[in-house]
Every structure is written in C-alpha cells, then in structure tokens.
Give the backbone structure.
Amino acid sequence: MSDKHVTTLLKKHLKQAMKNSSKSRRQVFLDLYSGAGGISKKLKHDGFGVLEFEINRGEEFDLTRPCVRRFVLSWLRSGIVRGVWLATICKSWSRARRGPPGSNWQKIRDNEHIYGLPGLPEKCLHTLKIGNATMRQTAETIKTCIQFRVPVCLENPVGSMLWQAPPATGVFHDWAVYSTTGRCIP
Ligand SMILES: C[S@@+](CC[C@H](N)C(=O)[O-])C[C@H]1O[C@@H](n2cnc3c(N)ncnc32)[C@H](O)[C@@H]1O
C-alpha cells in the first residue's frame, strides 16, 4: 500500500471517529498497539471517538511505518487528541524470556545489555530490532504528549526491561505516576 493511500485511509478513519463521538466532535482518543481493543471498547461505550492502531487491522495502523508515525505526532501537536493509551509490544522486553539458546523464548537482553546481548542468532535480531525501535518511538510519543499536554498512559508488565531503557527512563522520570495491576483490563 502506498503512503498516499495510507494517508487517505487515516484521514477517513479520523473523520469517522470524530463523527462517532457523542462527547466531542473535535477530539479523539488514540489506542496505540490496541490488541483486543478493550480500552477502545470502554471509551467508545462512554461516547468518545477512538482510533485503534493495531497492525492486524490494516497497513494504515502499522506504527513502525514512518508516514503513520508522522500522522500520529502531528495529531498530538494539533490539539485533536484527548488522550493516548500505549500498549507497546513487550515481547522482546519481557523477563519471561529466559529459555535455552536456540529456543523461541531465548533471553535477548539483560540489565547490562539493554539493547541486546552480543552474539544473538539471526532469528532473534528481528524481534530485538522491532523492540528497540518501538521503545524509542514510544518515548518520542510520550515526550510529545508531555510537551502538548495530552494525557498519556503506558501499559507494560511491571518487570518489563522497557522501563529501564534510557530513552524511556528519561521521559518517565519527568512524568510518571506508576500503577501496577495484577491483570489486564478486559
Ligand atoms: C501488548 S499487545 C496489546 C495488548 C492490549 N492491551 C490487549 O489487551 O490486547 C501489543 C499489540 O501490538 C500489536 N502490534 C505489533 N506490532 C505493531 C505495529 N507495528 N503497529 C501496530 N500494532 C502492532 C500486536 O499485534 C499486539 O496486539
């Protein structure tokens, strides 16, 4: 799909989300890495317009795509975003990854090698690269939210190493109110 088509679709989805809102026709919530969409469901139920960015919903929702990122950041700067929920992929950051070398859950980071252990096999490098990129993009999104006073929440497991990655810790320390919960919100 071309960037032009992605742009057209995103504009269409934004218009529709605003139209669907009974609370405000000028603002929407962004549910980034929305997964099953539990947060969106609740917000929609409460009358808000929501845009769900989940790669499985279509190419226009791929948050690693530069033109999609540009759109999200420009919306944050423009005042049309009422709040952001980020459920950044935790697959590469999880401490549950502690399997033997060669397995699908082999350890790929530790506290001393937060961006990746040396000598990893090829098959782990893609997961690592996506994890590092989406963590940096998440930090940039949060920074922009802080700058433009848009409320933002980051969902990740309490033991996730993402909380320790320097681009993320920099923004979290200015901003954060932490809360832990034992289960995901349905
Ligand atoms: C941690 S899960 C979301 C958890 C969510 N709170 C839920 O309850 O389902 C992260 C989600 O990000 C999606 N994802 C992975 N890569 C993505 C990308 N490049 N752009 C948008 N979504 C992506 C995955 O498909 C997955 O559903």
